[in-house]
Amino acid sequence: MNRQALGRKFARLATNAVVARPRLWRLFRGVMRRQFETLAPHWDQIRSADHLAPYEQALEALPEPPAHALDVGTGTGDGALAIARRFPQANVVGADLADGMLEEARRKLPDEVAGRVRFERADASALPYADESFDLVAHANMIPFFDEVARLVAPGGHALFAFSIGPETPIYVPSERLRAELRRRGFAEFADFAAGQGTALLARKRPSS
Ligand SMILES: C[S@@+](CC[C@H](N)C(=O)[O-])C[C@H]1O[C@@H](n2cnc3c(N)ncnc32)[C@H](O)[C@@H]1O
Question: What are the phi and psi torsion angles at 158 (to 5°)?
Fold first, then answer.
């Protein structure tokens, strides 16, 4: 098995383990970070042109434009930029563990959105943001940390999970599993999408009563 195939296998193993037991993340964190540091300079070349198609489709379905959005595991920042371009009033944070990814993201940041988009180093398992501070928390090809997602999304806000090549994506969580975890944490409305080669789920947190 070559190195890339091994990396993909490891990513799937880590995803399944961490979704089942989030505390196991500390065992995977170092290797995952190093893996993505190595991939960072080539990341934009190794993805397909339509890698964000399901993510874009879910953004399109949002009933209102978000004012504060977070792209978790942003990599080289394409998800954060997609939000900023689509919603001209949105302030967007892209968070990632790997400095190399963040460097690429900052290098690519176009002037026209630079005042509204920032990239920060942060771990999705314990994010340095206030409770309910985002009306959209988005993930593309990223291991979800459900307690953090539920903490950060404002009442009535949305969480988005996209996987560029659907179930073939190394970091993949089936929609039924996402729904079950989110339902237990106060999310009530769900919509599935398929676009390009990928899939996405959009979930809405219950508004406060
Ligand atoms: C498969 S890449 C996806 C990057 C980007 N979202 C995309 O779709 O092109 C996963 C990214 O998540 C980052 N990552 C993995 N685990 C993370 C965590 N717990 N906290 C923050 N970033 C994480 C990695 O460094 C990597 O950049």
Answer: -125, 150
Delineate the domains of the chain, giving CATH numbers in brackets. 3-205 (3.40.50.150)
Q: Can you name the residues that pair with 88 across neighbouring β-strands?
A: none
If one residue of 15, 36, 37, 143 were mutated to test the ligand 1 pocket, choosing by the most ligand atoms within 8 A of its CB, it would be 36
- State the chain's maximal CA–CA distance in angstroms: 54
Would you say 59 and 66 are in contact if contact means Cβ atoms under 8 Å apart? no
Token pair in block for residue 161: 């999970």
The closest alpha carbon to 134, from 106, 175, 93, belongs to 93
CA of 209 to the centre of ligand 1 (A): 34
What's this model's pTM, rounded to 2 decimal places? Answer: 0.97
pLDDT tens column, 122-165: 999 999 999 999 999 999 999 999 999 999 999 999 999 999 99
